[in-house]
Write a structure and sequence with these properties.
mainly alpha, 181 residues
Length: 181
């Protein structure tokens, strides 16, 4: 059942709830689901191999090759999971708002980049190298990579989610157009 347009404005409460559900699934949901999937594969792999890590079984699990899908700077598993969730979103809710979930994380990312208090003034190369290292690079150890985890990854996953939702809509519209011609 399609929600009726709000008589006085642009958006009604049901659409707002749907948007925030998409927002939550595209950021937190994609990350949590991807971590669980990667950990399951790592657990399976660790149970098949002898522990040569010199540590406990948890260390052995985290040293499995599949674990690198969660690592910076690319965060492959969360991005792929978000892409798949975006593509699947059409099956459960109307994807109208799924195409726009990248906007809020992008605003947060831009705000963080432009208000960064790093080394040097914001016009120097040192400043932008520091920004790159903390938000996009693999050398983010000084900040424990928390800026990437809490700012950059939500942007990556929300953009992938939107891309997945839009791609499915475009493919479906193309198939409908080909079917009618």
């Amino acid at each position: 059942m399609e929600p009726k347009p709000h008589p006085r404005g642009w958006i009604n409460n049901a659409e707002l709830v749907i948007f925030f559900a998409h927002q939550l699934m595209s950021t937190v949901g994609a990350t949590v689901i991807s971590v669980l999937i990667v950990l399951l594969f790592a657990l399976f792999g660790a149970s098949l191999k002898r522990n040569t890590s010199g540590g406990n079984f948890i260390d052995h699990i985290t040293q499995q090759r599949v674990s690198m899908l969660l690592n910076q700077p690319y965060y492959v598993a969360p991005v792929l999971c978000a892409l798949a969730l975006g593509a699947l979103s059409r099956r459960f809710v109307r994807p109208r708002w799924a195409a726009w979930v990248w906007v809020l994380p992008m605003i947060i990312l831009l705000w963080n980049l432009l208000t960064w208090k790093g080394a040097g003034p914001p016009t120097t190369a040192v400043y932008w190298a520091d920004v790159w290292a903390d938000y996009f690079g693999s050398d983010c150890g000084g900040s424990e990579c928390m800026y990437e985890v809490f700012v950059t990854v939500p942007f990556y996953t929300s953009a992938a989610y939107s891309l997945g939702a839009v791609a499915v809509c475009l493919l479906r519209n193309r198939d409908v157009a080909e079917h009618h011609s």
